[in-house]
Amino acid sequence: MKFFALSSRTFLLSALTGAFVFSLPSGGMVSASHRLQTPEPQMETKVEMPQVEMPREEREVRRPSGRQREIRPTSEGSTRVVPRSLHERVQEILAPAPQPEPQALPLTPFPVPKTVSTYDDSIIGTPLASQEQCVRYLLRYNPAPDISVTPQQLVSYYYQEGEREGIRPDVAFAQALKETGFFRYGGTVTPDQNNYCGLGTTSATVKGAYFASSELGVRAHIQHLLAYASTRQPLEPVVDPRYDLVRSVYGESTLTRWEDLNGRWAVPGTTYGQSILSMFRAILNE
After folding, report:
1. Residue 127: CB atoms within 10 Å
2. For residue 111, what are the contacts with CB-CB under 8 A and spacing of at least 6?
3. How many domains does the chain have?
């Protein structure tokens, strides 16, 4: 009987406790239905990338460490990985390897025949005399030339403009010496015109062209020679006031020698070109 009574109490207590548990508010315990309605967290899909095996030498170079590595050839013809020290890396930054200098572009975009003989009488060509020889020859005959720049600067203009257009600058300078009387003038053209070759001086009363600077005066002289010697347009804008006139008269014809200027640049000028070449050869003796 005691056992039955104890079992009855135990059963009764269990029943009451179970009823109490199932009667709790829904906020105190998550119900099974609520758990079923809650979405499960999505699992991130991980895509396995295929492993690419790199060459051993490349793995050595890319291996992270405090010292960079470089691949050097060995005497046997193979390669080995040599670590570079911090000092070597600093030296590379402070004193980088010299870069190759770009190739100098030609002064003119067209071929110019090289002058090799003192007796070459071509208008187009390269200089034989130096700028220093031209200056010394001028100052030997006129220590105080009436020009707006130094003799050195004036000669440099002839070389700059002449080499650009393919006209021999040393012979063109000799022509300027002849036309101006070693820059003493004394004729129709005056020093303020910066006209070194008598451009536009068609008579004793016509003074000819004026140019704003010595450089433009030299450019006009070189362009006028080019008008006779070539059908090619000058590389610089035309400042020679008679360039188009010469080109329209000669058309496809050209003059190739300094002697061809006889009776054309100077009238009658029977030995005009020869005298210019004679002065040029005297410059070579300086």
Report:
1. 21
2. none
3. 1
pLDDT tens, 104-160?
A: 544 567 899 999 999 999 999 999 999 999 999 999 999 999 999 999 999 999 999
Return phi, psi of residue 133, to 5°.
-65, -40
Element (H, E) at 70: strand 69-73
CA–CA dist 10, 16 (Å, integer): 10
The residues facing 83 across adjacent strands are 69
Q: Nearest to residue 183, comparing CAs of 113, 114, 135?
A: 135
Compute the half-sphere exposure of residue 78: CA atoms within 13 Å on the CB side of its CA: 5
123 vs 171: CA distance, rounded Å:
8
Burial, 228: exposed, middle or buried (Cβ in 10 Å; 0-12, 13-18, 19+)? buried
Helix ranges restricted to H, 31-120: 32-37, 56-62, 86-94
| Domain interval for residue 215 | 131-284
CATH of the domain at 173: 1.10.530.10
